[in-house]
Amino acid sequence: MKLRPVNDKIVVKKINKNDEHVTESGLIIPDTAHGGLLEGEVVAVGKGMYSANGTLIPVVVSKGDKILYGKHGAGQEYKLNGDECVIMSQNEVLSIMEEE
Question: Topology of 1-16+36-90 in CATH?
Fold first, then answer.
């Protein structure tokens, strides 16, 4: 199955990083104990939103982009073909990651 988001929504596949951090003294700190950003890959993009005067405002991210988004309050989680995904508005994207 594939998803086709509407308006300014995007579907992001979570990029799983090590979910816990081990301090120098050996204490394990789970990901829930420290805030931060999550990485993801955009797998589907809506067409954009219409402004009050009827012009289409396009989505600024593209399929395949690697992005950063906030851990808390970012969209709705969904399991798609065994992958953990998040359906969110493009406004919840904090940054597009690019190679230097």
Answer: 10 Kd Chaperonin, Protein Cpn10; Chain O (2.30.33)
Element housing 83 (H / E): strand 83-89
Nearest CA to 12 out of 73, 76, 60 is that of 76
What pLDDT digit, counting tens, does each position of 1-38 carry? 888 999 999 999 988 765 566 777 877 766 555 567 88
Strand 83-89 vs strand 9-14: parallel, antiparallel, or unpaired?
Answer: antiparallel
What's this model's pTM, rounded to 2 decimal places?
0.79
- What value, to the nearest 5°, has the Cα angle with vertex 74 and ends 42 and 27? 100
Domain boundaries, the chain: 1-16+36-90
Cβ–Cβ under 8 Å, residues 9 and 93: no
